Automatic annotation (TrEMBL):
<dbReference type="Pfam" id="PF12762">
    <property type="entry name" value="DDE_Tnp_IS1595"/>
</dbReference>
<dbReference type="InterPro" id="IPR024445">
    <property type="entry name" value="Tnp_ISXO2-like"/>
</dbReference>
<dbReference type="InterPro" id="IPR053164">
    <property type="entry name" value="IS1016-like_transposase"/>
</dbReference>
<feature type="domain" description="ISXO2-like transposase">
    <location>
        <begin position="170"/>
        <end position="315"/>
    </location>
</feature>
<protein>
    <recommendedName>
        <fullName>ISXO2-like transposase domain-containing protein</fullName>
    </recommendedName>
</protein>
């Protein structure tokens, strides 16, 4: 969505109000969060603008609060937004009764971070472009540890969004073919489950390839009625007799003879490809042995669902930040 420059924020003290005309102010209708998706171009055009216009944009995107009630227990008065040169983005919320000031980032994603917001947005753009922490640190003149910490906050948003929408990973169902494959990493394994009919996938970090471990993930994400294709690993045999009558139809391909059955077309290539894409990302980011690998898998799954392109990722991660940090 394009946001017209200067449409809001021209009133000197009240960013919620769109214009001052003869002393009368018109309030803008409150927009739904989902309607506001800033693109990189929107933010890039504002990033070098003055603090007031930039703050107004952040408020319209629901990334920063528009109002704040005083936190003094016997006050709770609505604070005014006031200019204050030394404050973040040149403004504070001010309670005229208690004379208390509050940061404009109070309660927001950016309130806990120690890096200036314009730098965070540049860092976020680098992150969605899969630029490694070391390169990003050099580019932005930040300590590498700071960049690593910020990346973790971005991944936390991805993990939160996935936990909010568990239905995203329901795969298969009647008439669907679901392929399953496991792929080794340096320490453990990754299971890849791919619905060839939808098409969409799921991946998780697993400690071993036992029936119990594999079944735990299969039962969680594969809907009854699916036709499941796997290799002939013994752990999958239980899929045919689950609880006496299996909810799945299970077919196997013998990988010692061929990768794709020439007669039936049976294979696990799509699931293998899904795991390879995940491992490719992990390798590019240089985090193959990271103790945070499960978080990187969440990030990959989030990218698969919400950000095929860097622009989509940038828009959606900001949208999900605005959903997670509500005011
Ligand atoms: Zn007060």
């Amino acid at each position: 969505m394009k946001i017209a420059a200067g449409a809001e924020g021209e009133c000197s003290n009240h960013l919620r109000k769109s214009q001052c005309r003869n002393g009368r102010e018109r309030r803008l209708p409150r927009r739904k969060t989902s309607e506001i998706r800033p693109s990189f171009a929107d933010l890039a055009s504002y990033i070098n603008s003055d603090d007031e216009a930039f703050l107004a944009l952040l408020q319209r995107c629901s990334l920063v609060r528009r109002n704040l009630r005083c936190k003094t227990s016997n006050c709770r008065r609505n604070c005014n937004l006031r200019r204050r040169q030394s404050a973040v983005l040149g403004h504070v919320f001010f309670c005229i009764r208690c004379r208390k000031m509050y940061s404009v980032f109070d309660g927001s994603f950016f309130g806990t971070l120690r890096v200036p917001i314009r730098t965070i947005l540049s860092l976020l753009w680098n992150w969605v472009c899969e630029i490694r922490a070391g390169s990003s640190a050099m580019h932005l003149g930040l300590p590498r540890q700071t960049v690593i910490r910020q990346h973790k906050y971005f991944r936390d948003v991805c993990s939160w969004k996935l936990s909010e929408q568990p239905d995203l990973f329901l795969l298969g169902g009647p008439g669907h073919v679901v392929q399953i494959d496991e792929s080794p990493t340096k320490q453990k394994w990754i299971i890849g489950i791919y619905d060839c009919t939808s098409p969409k996938g799921y991946a998780a970090y697993i400690p071993d390839r036992s029936s119990e471990t594999l079944l735990q993930h299969i039962l969680k994400v594969v809907l009854p009625g699916s036709e499941i294709w796997t290799d002939e690993l013994q752990s999958y045999r239980c899929l045919s007799v689950l609880g006496g009558v299996s909810p799945y139809t299970h077919k196997t391909v013998n990988h010692s003879r061929y990768f794709r059955d020439p007669m039936t077309g049976l294979c696990t290539n799509r699931a293998e490809g899904y795991c390879s894409r995940l491992k490719g990302m992990i390798r590019r980011l240089g985090v193959m042995q990271s103790p945070f690998l499960p978080e990187y898998i969440d990030m990959f799954l989030w990218w698969q669902h919400f950000g095929r392109t860097a622009a989509d990722r940038f828009r959606n991660v900001l949208l999900h930040i605005s959903e997670k940090y509500t005011f």
